[in-house]
UniProtKB/TrEMBL annotation:
GO biological process terms held by the UniProt record: cilium assembly
Source organism phylogeny: Eukaryota, Metazoa, Ecdysozoa, Arthropoda, Chelicerata
Keywords for this protein: Cell projection, Cilium biogenesis/degradation, Cytoplasm, Cytoskeleton
Family: Belongs to the B9D family.
Protein name: B9 domain-containing protein 1
Amino acid sequence: MENENTFHLMISGQIETAEFPEIDEIYCKHCFVYGPDWVVTAGIEEGISQISQKGEGGHFALNFPLDISFKSTNPFGWPQLVVSVYGIDYFGNDVVRGYGSVHLPTSPGKHSRKVAMFVPESSSLLQRLTSWLIGRRPEFVDPRVVAQGEGREVTKVKSQGHMNIVFNIITKDLDKLNYDTG
């Protein structure tokens, strides 16, 4: 018998489009970050998209599907989607083009989110020049750090484009536990 103090969160949707003005080709990776009381019950926790070229109007069409279900006993650590975008630089190196994260919507229904993306920057001009010459730009070892606050307060970043994401949310048993998601 399932624990009567659990609720369920089901997500489908897609990473639809992206806008990165100075880039011609991208692909993205995604993962979910969630609290210790959350368990994935079905679906795909991580993924990587196809390579997309900039279309008319400067948009990238990714249409990358999202499908995952969770259960939890506690809303603390509500899941977040972390997106990492990569592309090829002038020298043919695979480099990070942006990181972004968004909390999954708490209310049932269809939701659209525009997620701002950013890239880490070198802290000095010498480091910036060196990283450009050797083709190793600053990036996070684990992109999940984007969804956490600890250690990010000293990270220098630069805004760079955005992603358009659509979520279809279904919740079950939140009302039985007296949670109002409006």
